[in-house]
Amino acid sequence: MNKNTYLNVLVTVILIVMAVLCFVFVSALDQLRFAMEDMNRSMKNIESRLAGLRVVSGNQPAAANGTGADVANRQYYDQNADQGGRLITAFGADVGNMNMLVTNDAYVSEIWSKTMDSLADRDYADNGSGALKPMLAESWTISPDKLKYRIKLRRGILWHDFRDPVTGKEWKNREVTAHDFKFYLDVVKNEDVDCAPLRGYLKDIDRIDVINDHEFEVIWNKPYFLAEDISLGLIPLPRHLYHAYEGPFDGKKFNDDHERNRMVVGCGPYRFDKWEKGRRIVLRRFDNYYGRNLGIMPPIETIAFDIIQHPNTRLQALLSNELDLDSLSADQWVNRTGTREFQKDGSLEKLQYPSSMYSYIGLNQKNELFRDKRVRQALSHLVNREKILKDVFFNLAEMVSGPFPKTSASYDQSIRPYSFDVEKAKLLLAEAGWKDTDGDGILDRDGKPFRFTLIYPNVSVSNQKMLPIIKEDMAKAGIQMDLLGIEWSVLVQRLEKKQFDACTLAWTGTLKPDPYQLWHSSLAEVNASSNHIAFANPKADELIEKIRLCFDPAERNRLYHEFHRLIHDEEPYLFLFAPHSLVAVNKRYNNRRVFRDGLKTNILWVERNRQLQVPGY
Fold first, then answer.
1. Which CATH number is associated with domain 5-53+104-264?
2. Per-residue buried b or exposed e for 239-276, using 16+ beta carbons within 10 Å of the residue's own CB
């Protein structure tokens, strides 16, 4: 999602944890906006919790001067910017609840990225090789064995004020402490809490030891190449909201606390204001944000996320000044932006930049149709990627061959996607025992026809154009692929329970990916895991474990490439495209800067005489 990545850091472990992984379910455009903004919604959530950070190593303070005066990305904020005004963008669907730990929803992660800060963040312009800069942390040190991370918090960081929706108690001016970070880890590690994907990334953290209110240690059981990233991507969790009752913490209650899960309480630059179900979610700037005195207070006063399902309706809202920012589909970019609003003297600017997203068709390995890799390879040979790239995506994407972002060093550029070759597909299918024995035009084996159903988000215009092309080409080899467009919430439920034949989705990756969450066999039978196709391969497991223990970037890239080759050979996904990020933004916003992971809305500002307000607010 291009909508800002998490401050990036959990806004990396939620906000890294909002930048390492990960890889969540999502969609960022209709150009795979449901094959990529919503098709990505689940993993982007994790990725937003875990982001790809990199910390300095050794026994050195992260803040070079050690004074706590340093803070990430201050140089990109205009200190003379006019304050106030609005930014309205759109979600393609409403959220189910606001608790990011128990929902795999990229939109919820987007909200948390505005309302919560992590301990540290990367420079927006960093390519992944630089050090982290402090956010909630004032400084930190790392033990030589990289198993202990001692963190010193800034003083005076406040939680957002709120009224408990259950007890009615008012909470004001409560300080964030080390205990809130320990509470976060304890909640994630609680087996009753529905956060299995996130728990997998934190499973090797042994504990958090609280030293005092402003110091704590994150202690790992064993080395892990992302331990620095995840430790500095941790966020606090408000115990006074989620454990506002006597007795031990109840993980099942945390999952189902419907009233408290309809709000967000954070310590970031924006506070949750209102959720009008099915219509709009509103955030307002937090006046007591610690970043105000550090030069990182966002100038925009109010952010709104309007719930608008159809991409053409969103485009009309942009043209009529009801939206200020949104993604565009490839079709819209080429065919719908010739109006005066997009001209040089118009009100809207188009921005295009590479994304770390890739789309795919996932083949459920529980279905015996897909257990032979020759069959999976044959299906990939039946995808006419070149035609789809030209006719559906207008060449505003790139074909991909494997499970990593094409823009990262982890992706092996020498591996080519499977060619479109119907005859080769027929040969592979015949080798696997599939023949048309009854002359009905559909292959069969042992009396069973080769027929399956592919599910996809029903509002995706790009899927509606792409999938019939693939269906027609599958039929040329005697395969009947039925198409079923369903609502996102229903699709997620079926994915979580692994109750589907095939699906078309998308993932967003990071600069230092960990394949564990998507590909490790230990998650193949786990409901709601990101390994929703139940992939299990001993060699893949072996490579994943080596990657997780490899601290040398060059050697890790070699392992990534070996893993890429293995997955390409097995082809449990039919890898499709890496779309370009296509965005339209109103020109009244100043400081429109595109970084590696997109446009940063927290640095935008508007002259006072051009500011608008959210209707009704």
1. 3.90.76.10
2. bebbbeeeeebbbeebbebeebbebbbbbbbbbbbebe
